[in-house]
């Protein structure tokens, strides 16, 4: 699969570096084939790029500008519509190629299931991988209505793949009782409701380890991110999420990749969610890499 082809659509603000000269590759995973409630997240990556034109390239939080990061916007991975397994295989193959080339992947979803093949590829590349997961939902089901390929399963899949004790979830406020019990019995870290303070407590124990960060935009309260497929009240503020990203950026963990998923523009009439997601992508680019 080609990684360096010119992308004909909108690109994320500040993208100037070629693929060959890049350290970080920004890419989209436009898939929502398995969602359990409202579809539309496959349009998220394109809209995040489009609204990024309204951003400043300078972050006053980090005192850095986007030109200081060598990143390339590769566009969206072409995925076969309606075919979850083939789509996941294509994503994993793509990420294998990026990692083999020494690139850091920064993905935009798409539903949360797209994170599974990326994390799986990262686990092949990096020993002792840890996952930091921000979400409203546990995503620890083994199946949904009999279907094992579901956006409610990616964290269970990676936990079973690398060991539950290597997965740290924050902001969780929804899930089946059995999911919470499984996490507790198997040593997985789940912080219910809160994000920033429990994250700060965990980060020193992850110092020096390769870490992959996955953010479901619905970790935010619907007041801050209405444009998502499965809204869930009682979430954190966008200010808290930004502070959490900056806490990771200021720690001694080694972020080897990240993603932001579940932005669904069709439910985002004010474009509040897409604009928030765009700023989060900027802060991850500047803070993690």
Radius of gyration: 17 Å
| CATH-defined topology | Arginase, Chain A
Total number of distinct structural domains = 1
Largest sheet: spatial strand order: 4-1-5-10-9-6-7-8
CATH superfamily caption: Ureohydrolase domain
- Per CATH, the architecture is 3-Layer(aba) Sandwich
Short description:
The chain is α/β, with parallel strands linked by helices and 289 residues long. The chain has helices spanning 44-51, 84-100, 115-125, 154-162, 177-185, 196-202, 238-249, 272-288, and strands spanning 24-29, 58-59, 64-65, 71-76, 104-109, 130-134, 167-172, 189-192, 210-216, 254-261. The strands form 2 sheets. An 8-stranded parallel beta sheet has the order 4-1-5-10-9-6-7-8, sandwiched between helices. A two-stranded antiparallel ribbon has the order 2-3.
Structural description of this entry:
The chain has 289 residues and is of the alpha/beta class. The protein has helices spanning 44-51, 84-100, 115-125, 154-162, 177-185, 196-202, 238-249, 272-288, and strands at 24-29, 58-59, 64-65, 71-76, 104-109, 130-134, 167-172, 189-192, 210-216, 254-261. It has a single domain (24-288), classed as Arginase, Chain A (3-Layer(aba) Sandwich). It has an 8-stranded parallel beta sheet, with helices on both faces. The radius of gyration is 17 Å and the shape is globular.
Reconstruct the topology from this structure:
Blueprint: E1 24-29, H1 44-51, E2 58-59, E3 64-65, E4 71-76, H2 84-100, E5 104-109, H3 115-125, E6 130-134, H4 154-162, E7 167-172, H5 177-185, E8 189-192, H6 196-202, E9 210-216, H7 238-249, E10 254-261, H8 272-288
Parallel strand pairs: 1-4, 1-5, 5-10, 6-7, 6-9, 7-8, 9-10
Antiparallel strand pairs: 2-3
Helix pairs in contact: 1-8, 2-3, 3-4, 7-8
Family: Belongs to the arginase family. Agmatinase subfamily.
InterPro entries: Agmatinase-rel, Ureohydrolase, Ureohydrolase_dom_sf, Ureohydrolase_Mn_BS
Cofactor: Mn(2+)
